[in-house]
Amino acid sequence: MAAVNEDRMQAVEQLQRDLAVTAETVEHPNGLCMVTASAKGEIRALHLHPALLQLGARAVGEIVTETVRLATNAAVQTSFNKMALALGDGMAIDVESIAGDSPFRSKWNPVVPPKSAAEAAPAERRPRAPIVEDPDEDAFFENPFGRR
C-alpha cells in the first residue's frame, strides 16, 4: 500500500514538473505573428513579421492578442492531455467538470443548453379575473341544505 502511494506521489510530482514547462508555439492564420506561450498565459517568445508593423498599432495589438490566446489554449490543451495520460481519463474528466472543458473540446463539441419553450415564445397575457367583494364573509358557513 505504501509503495502504491509513493508511486502516485512520484507521478504527481512528475506531472507538476511537466506542466510547469509546458508551452506551445502557434502561428497566426495570416502568418504575420508567431507566439510561444505557457498554459498560464506567459509569453515565452514572440516573432512579428515586418509586414505586420505596417498595418498599424491596433492591428498589431489585435493579432498579437489573438495569437497569444491561441497559443495559450494550445498549451492548456497539451496540459489536459498530459494530465489524462498521467492520471487516467476518469480523473481528467473529473478535473474538466471542475475547471471547465479543455479549450479544443469546447470549440469542437460545445455544450449548449437547449432552449426551453418558455424562452422561445412569450407567454400570452390574459386579463386577471376581477376581484369580487363578498360582503358576507360567513356565507361559507351557511346551511347548504337551506338553499334550493
From TrEMBL:
List the keywords (alphabetical): DNA-binding
* Classification via Pfam families: YbaB_DNA_bd
InterPro entries xref list? YbaB-like_sf, YbaB/EbfC
GO molecular function annotations of the record: DNA binding
Q: Does the keyword DNA-binding apply?
A: yes
SUPFAM superfamilies annotated for this entry? YbaB-like (SSF82607)
Q: Where is this region: Disordered?
A: 104-148
Its recorded name reads: YbaB/EbfC DNA-binding family protein
Protein's organism: Lentzea atacamensis
Q: What is the lineage of its organism?
A: Bacteria, Bacillati, Actinomycetota, Actinomycetes, Pseudonocardiales
